[in-house]
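Minutes, project huddle
Topic: does the predicted pose make sense with FE2/S2 (inorganic) cluster bound?
PN asked that the exact inputs be recorded in the minutes so nobody has to dig through chat later. Recorded below.
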Amino acid sequence: MKDLSVILSGLKLDNPVIPASGTFGYGAEFKNFYDINILGSFSFKGTTQEPRFGNPTPRIAECESGMINSIGLQNPGIEAVVSEILPKMATYFKKPVIANIGGFSVAEFVCCAEMLDSSPQVGIIEVNISCPNLHKGGRNFASDPLAAAEVTAAVKKVTDKPVYIKLSPNVTSITEIAKACEDAGADGISMINTLVGMRIDIKTRKPIIANKMGGFSGRAIFPVALRMVYEVAGTVNIPIIGIGGIATARDVIEMMMAGATAVQVGAENLRNPYVCKDIIEELPKLMEELKIEKLSDIIGAAL
Amino acid sequence: MKDLSVILSGLKLDNPVIPASGTFGYGAEFKNFYDINILGSFSFKGTTQEPRFGNPTPRIAECESGMINSIGLQNPGIEAVVSEILPKMATYFKKPVIANIGGFSVAEFVCCAEMLDSSPQVGIIEVNISCPNLHKGGRNFASDPLAAAEVTAAVKKVTDKPVYIKLSPNVTSITEIAKACEDAGADGISMINTLVGMRIDIKTRKPIIANKMGGFSGRAIFPVALRMVYEVAGTVNIPIIGIGGIATARDVIEMMMAGATAVQVGAENLRNPYVCKDIIEELPKLMEELKIEKLSDIIGAAL
Amino acid sequence: MKQVFFEIASNILIADKVYELKLSGDTSGITAPGQFVNIMIGGFFLRRPISVCDWDDGSLKIIYKVVGEGTEALSKMENGRLDILVGLGNGYNLTECGKTPLLVGGGAGVPPMYGLCKKLVEAEALPTVVIGFNKAVDVFYKAEFEELGVQTIIATADGSIGVKGFVTDAIKTLDREFSSYCACGPEPMLKALSDTLTIKGQLSFEERMACGFGACMGCSCKTRYGSKRICRDGPVLRSDEVIW
Amino acid sequence: MKQVFFEIASNILIADKVYELKLSGDTSGITAPGQFVNIMIGGFFLRRPISVCDWDDGSLKIIYKVVGEGTEALSKMENGRLDILVGLGNGYNLTECGKTPLLVGGGAGVPPMYGLCKKLVEAEALPTVVIGFNKAVDVFYKAEFEELGVQTIIATADGSIGVKGFVTDAIKTLDREFSSYCACGPEPMLKALSDTLTIKGQLSFEERMACGFGACMGCSCKTRYGSKRICRDGPVLRSDEVIW
Ligand SMILES: Cc1cc2nc3c(=O)[nH]c(=O)nc-3n(C[C@H](O)[C@H](O)[C@H](O)COP(=O)(O)OP(=O)(O)OC[C@H]3O[C@@H](n4cnc5c(N)ncnc54)[C@H](O)[C@@H]3O)c2cc1C
Ligand SMILES: Cc1cc2nc3c(=O)[nH]c(=O)nc-3n(C[C@H](O)[C@H](O)[C@H](O)COP(=O)(O)OP(=O)(O)OC[C@H]3O[C@@H](n4cnc5c(N)ncnc54)[C@H](O)[C@@H]3O)c2cc1C
Ligand SMILES: Cc1cc2nc3c(=O)[nH]c(=O)nc-3n(C[C@H](O)[C@H](O)[C@H](O)COP(=O)(O)O)c2cc1C
Ligand SMILES: Cc1cc2nc3c(=O)[nH]c(=O)nc-3n(C[C@H](O)[C@H](O)[C@H](O)COP(=O)(O)O)c2cc1C
Ligand code: FES
Ligand code: FES
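Predicted holo structure (tokens), as shared on screen:
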């Protein structure tokens, strides 16, 4: 029997496979495809303080080996999530979930984290700092080490749950941001969020996405995500959840060798709703081939 | 008859299709595949002051819809290029060429530019500022607006040829760097160079590339390149050569609508040596379909 | 909602750039006309959403227009297997259609009207069909609708066949009361219908989609009853909830 | 150096994970044994470099081992067309081989030795062949070499067939003088040969490649005569220029 378990800040997962925020909703649709309790965990759709409709449509554009999304954090707001969605989720998902929160001010992150702190279903709070900081003239939290540290420290103060900061790849030095988060008390790093990308409709001569640009993800971004995880793993001492372009068991192994303790699968869920199940079934076979007994043994093997 | 011509800082090209530096050598291999005089121009392999062997091998790794290279600027040095290679090139390429230069100090860029200034074959000097600045502790010229401006101004001083600065995408704000180059006198912007990427061999558990990381390019990076060209086109008033993931005539049109005056095709040349010829033949048909008479009319159409 | 691997039975051109694709495989996931399927095409990242045109136990028919690279690639497949998610979306509600519904299809919006018409006829309703195209070469499925025994009016923008003008012009020629209307087609057509007709309608919308099964919020739209996902809560919306 | 679209004639398993692929198409671009071709495989960005094993007017034979996803995909193709760049690299120089050359192949390095052997025999030289494998199930082409009328010694690491040990062990059993040697196989084997044999040798090297035709500098190596590109100035290097 292969041992697929990994531990994220004291939370033991049966396996390292976690659907990524925004690509799995609250799990309700996927449970029609397979028993989602086979997953390590899942990260639910990014939640903000107030309900948000999100961006105008079209919100989706296709790319070679990937896609662009511009959902704009559509969600029912933290109150509805805590009081309506989490209780419903408890009926079909029996493991601790990763609660992804977004925000446009430090206060918004703090409010969301506070409300999630008392939920026993939440295993980890994942703080998506890729949104622009409306209080600082739209500068991104994720591209400024001071802002990233400020959010981290503030969220840490209001919750006892492990806090993972989700980083954006659209920066000159992601290690600098990761280090700032670690120093500010982050329990782990989730990385990477989407690259900023764009497509133009050559017939209409206009951007396909109503908001012009959006977040580019899918298989195409794997080499960038892997490199960044490798760099950050060489810099910080907290666990990393590797995200970006993962679609196969081989990708999972490669990402773990780069230094990730667990992984999240994003866009691939949208084209192949069974991908996480496929990966979980394939992992023990691939481990056999590669002579790996305990999956956690390979974390950072390439460092 | 469709008009495919475009003008880069006074230099009229028959069409906007230019093989990118490092993927076309000095044209000698490609002339065995087709008559390379059909090209708009081509950008030759990055040249440094001294000859360089480059990085250890393996230097190549494959990715989904792309590849990583870590050539490390292998080249015979500027003197050999000017005195031996350019005269030989004159026998088979009859159009002005784009001279790509690299450097690890401002003085190195200046030396290369000076030596190329007197060559009538050189139409444009393309300054690849993605190399680390050895004089400033390895900080990248391309990620620091001041360093980028310094190189630009210094090179401009020693040559009357149009100077295009080639930007790296691995930065938080590419518009900031582009603006700095424009303000320092750049005649145009070439963008983008490769994204930093990595792959690991899961059998050996080691990075595939000897130098661990390398430059990721090919179709996968097109949405990132397009977005950055669009951003920079909205910021500067000098022409842009759009580079990154271009493989089809549709990509060329899309990149030009984003604001590029011409384009460069990189990695795709290595897998399909005929790609530039294919694109040049396909462009008039696609223009017919899209009711475009003069290709230069669509530059920046999506802005 | 189900993943099924279908075998291509045939894939033939039936009008200018329009193909009819017959597939065999498990159709038990399909529950209503107006639902759609989401087709994986080799070499493309996203699936392509296409309406169910007709189905029975073990076979499925869809009709698609070649508009881009995905549908172009699909049109070249002569045999083999296709990975398809079936039974997506709500579809039309037959009860709400009433006894004498008007079915309106425009261009690539015609196919779901066929399946709907068939189910209505089976349920002993008396639908009337109005379908619009640009010109004669674009027209398809006139005979198929007529074989169902329903009155079928064609409108073409250039008048080369049937009533000259839009579906709304053709509807004006029908001096009759309808219990409700169902429509699928370009958004301007849907809006024109909703502006002209006072009876209740069920309108099918399109949006760029990623998942097609409700998980990504890629296809949201605002309605009078809050935000809805075209792929899951739609594609069929009631005329009184649509915000134009 | 030429792009050719070849038709797959056959693609069969001839040893453990080793396939022989016969192709028909224009082989006029191939000029010497030891050259290689670069094969585009659907879904992969880079082509896969594989040595020419044998060729005549209109047909080409290559032998490849399944080691990763590309060769795995190739092994599943039964028919169809392949986009291949042919005539890449320098190949072995027959004149330099002399009258009585020793040909040494290891594992996936055996195939080019066959084409070389054939050309040498045609040129009335008297080659001796030593080929090494890990174990009996890996062995291929013993009979084919023997059919050329040349002495063919097999070495296997586990001794399950032929001489137990490496090719160098097998060579020790040959009490004879050779005019030169030619080799292709894993780098440790090439180094061992170069360390043991004092005669002139031509050694074929492998490197990760992007273009395969000399444009990208992906495959450079340092030699005593400056830097060379394995794909263009190689894959065959002379033993006296190699820097180990
Ligand atoms: C619910 C629904 C039902 C549909 N039913 C039919 C049908 O029965 N017959 C038919 O011909 N067409 C139908 N369409 C439209 C069909 O999905 C598009 O024509 C098709 O996706 C175009 O793909 P392409 O690769 O050829 O075009 P490209 O433009 O190359 O596609 C690029 C991307 O844009 C998306 N896209 C392009 N046009 C549309 C569109 N109109 N709607 C949604 N996404 C689009 C594609 O899915 C793909 O992700 C339907 C669309 C939806 C949403
Ligand atoms: C000049 C030359 C001649 C060769 N001749 C033969 C031959 O006749 N028979 C044979 O079985 N093999 C031969 N090889 C090795 C063959 O190219 C690799 O086994 C093959 O590319 C592996 O592809 P893959 O997709 O299965 O492996 P993967 O590991 O999935 O490939 C990933 C990438 O690495 C490259 N790669 C992996 N292994 C090698 C290697 N050993 N050498 C170069 N690139 C590699 C691939 O080309 C691809 O770009 C030759 C290599 C070279 C350079
Ligand atoms: C449709 C979509 C919606 C997303 N929404 C969120 C979100 O709400 N919060 C978040 O932190 N990341 C969000 N992401 C980013 C993913 O969680 C993930 O970081 C990114 O897509 C990279 O992984 P991938 O390449 O596997 O898709 C979203 C991604 C997609 C494709
Ligand atoms: C093998 C290889 C070598 C390269 N060498 C150089 C170089 O010497 N100088 C330079 O400015 N860019 C170099 N580049 C970058 C390309 O010119 C181009 O900017 C980049 O690859 C993105 O384009 P693509 O996606 O079409 O490949 C190289 C790229 C590749 C793939
Ligand atoms: S397309 Fe994903 S929710 Fe509708
Ligand atoms: S692989 Fe490109 S030069 Fe050899």
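Observations noted during the meeting:
- Residues D 209-212, 214-219, 229, 231-232 surround FE2/S2 (inorganic) cluster (ligand 6) (CB under 6 Å).
- Chain C has six helices and 16 strands.
No decisions taken; revisit at the next huddle.
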